[in-house]
Q: What sequence folds into this?
């Protein structure tokens, strides 16, 4: 195949329209009629020189005939081949009912585990403690408006998992030589996501698209023979001789199960307790806690783009900042939401936790991001495997109290946080929040070493992004669910110490976002199929 990849194609943002056929012709030194077709593989913004901001493209072009090999240059032009994801295990044609795999949880890991199993004939059963996504939205809105929390249907629990109410970021640093990432992105697009996620450098879907995307992935699983059961929480496991034999649902119904993917998410604390009781091997895992910080989006865009920030061809500006304090604590921004909202993400009674989200358009007036401080296992209150969960809970309980004990998110100006005084009025920024809030002193929520690290880190970020440490920047607390505080151990075949139980995704400690969780879900589907293909083929 005469297919070539051209990298580092720089195009001014002020160029009215990119004529890619002409550009490809120039780079490959061929006439335009020799170009059969082309595809944008990557698009990013280079804003290092504010007066020369440009788009940078990578393009794959297929020609009718080969080019002169002297033009090939591994840094710019190279031969390339199209690679597609292939399920590495033979599909099945028939399985017995008692051998159908169960997927516990329908977040990104659970959905993609179920999708791959369904596409290959395994007819998975998906058990989700929360509600389907449309009903879930109703419960979330009731919580925002009336502070009535449904512990099983909220920002954390329900179809699509916590990622449904997020910015929908799809970037990941997980290495991928099997095209799992491409498979996921194409499935998202087929399910209704914008096509640009296939090539944008920092792709995101947005909450307003994610609802439909999640719904359509479910429909695809159903059409391939899968089943979904909502409001169906796994409350216990039936284990005999270290083998999974069944699951108890809602404490009153038992079903026989020999294979289950455990994709429960990072907030399923009651399930963590039950797994520990059932002697499923787990260990403590470091994580991070902190606050959400809000700035005017205009401030961020002016810093990143200079006078070009109002150019409507440019994406809404974002940032990523890291710092290590004088005492050695890592402080960093996480899950940055340009043009977004801070979201009340409580999932337990009388606890407050916040997160960030954006719609696809990213058109709110504020930018927000988590600013997190690394928490090590030696910071946990005990050596108990679930001590990290208790650490989170303690901060979330204090946040509930700081907010007035009515599910109001506690907010504070950074200047007041630095001076350890309660905020009584806002400055030049008004919060963009989903849910209600109260003025507070967030220092009451954290151990002093966390507060000190946050202050030092935010002041240091001012060096990279002017205005970041503004006294009027709004802090909201607490952000504690950036990752799971436990890891459910698994072997090289992705199986736990309980035969038939496959820990999966972010809750099990093997992912940190939508893409990495979905990729882990695919890996677990492959592992399940690999182990049981002999059993399933009759």
A:
């Amino acid at each position: 195949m005469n297919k070539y990849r051209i990298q580092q194609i720089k195009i001014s943002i002020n160029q009215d329209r990119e004529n890619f056929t002409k550009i490809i012709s120039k780079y490959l030194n061929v006439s335009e009629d020799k170009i059969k077709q082309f595809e944008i593989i990557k698009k990013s913004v280079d804003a290092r020189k504010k007066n020369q901001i440009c788009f940078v493209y990578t393009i794959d072009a297929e020609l009718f005939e080969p080019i002169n090999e002297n033009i090939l240059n591994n840094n710019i032009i190279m031969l390339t081949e199209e690679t597609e994801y292939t399920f590495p295990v033979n599909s099945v044609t028939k399985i017995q009912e008692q051998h159908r795999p169960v997927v516990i949880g329908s977040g990104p890991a659970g959905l993609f585990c179920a999708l791959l199993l369904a596409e290959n004939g395994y007819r998975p059963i998906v058990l989700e403690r929360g509600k389907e996504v449309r009903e879930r939205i109703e419960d979330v809105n009731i919580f925002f408006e009336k502070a009535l929390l449904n512990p099983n249907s909220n920002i954390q629990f329900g179809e699509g998992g916590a990622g449904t109410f997020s910015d929908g970021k799809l970037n990941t640093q997980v290495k991928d030589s099997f095209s799992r990432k491409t498979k996921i992105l194409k499935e998202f697009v087929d399910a209704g996501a914008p096509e640009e996620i296939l090539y944008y450098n920092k792709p995101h879907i947005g909450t307003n698209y994610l609802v439909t995307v999640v719904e359509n992935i479910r429909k695809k699983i159903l059409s391939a023979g899968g089943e979904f059961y909502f409001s169906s929480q796994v409350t216990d496991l039936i284990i005999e001789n270290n083998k999974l034999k069944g699951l108890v649902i809602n404490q009153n119904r038992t079903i026989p199960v020999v294979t289950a993917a455990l994709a429960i998410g990072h907030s399923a604390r009651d399930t963590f307790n039950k797994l520990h009781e059932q002697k499923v091997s787990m260990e403590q895992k470091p994580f991070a806690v902190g606050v959400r910080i809000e700035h005017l989006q205009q401030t961020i865009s002016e810093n990143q783009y200079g006078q070009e920030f109002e150019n409507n061809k440019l994406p809404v500006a974002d940032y990523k900042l890291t710092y290590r304090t004088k005492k050695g604590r890592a402080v960093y921004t996480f899950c940055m939401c340009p043009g977004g909202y801070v979201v009340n993400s409580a999932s337990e009674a009388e606890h407050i936790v916040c997160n960030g989200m954006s719609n696809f358009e990213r058109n709110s007036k504020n930018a927000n991001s988590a600013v997190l401080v690394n928490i090590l296992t030696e910071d946990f209150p005990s050596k108990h495997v679930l001590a990290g969960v208790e650490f989170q809970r303690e901060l979330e309980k204090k946040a509930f109290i700081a907010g007035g004990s009515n599910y109001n998110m506690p907010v504070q100006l950074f200047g007041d946080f630095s001076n350890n005084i309660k905020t009584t009025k806002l400055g030049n920024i008004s919060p963009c929040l989903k849910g209600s809030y109260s003025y507070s002193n967030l220092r009451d929520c954290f151990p002093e070493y966390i507060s000190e690290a946050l202050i030092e880190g935010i002041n240091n970020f001012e060096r990279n992004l002017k205005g970041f440490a503004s006294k009027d920047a709004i802090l909201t607390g607490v952000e504690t669910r950036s990752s799971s505080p436990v890891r459910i151990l698994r072997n090289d075949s992705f199986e736990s110490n309980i035969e038939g139980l496959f820990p999966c995704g972010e809750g099990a400690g093997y992912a940190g976002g939508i893409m990495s969780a979905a990729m882990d879900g695919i890996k677990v589907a492959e592992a399940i199929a690999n182990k049981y293909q002999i059993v399933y083929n009759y």
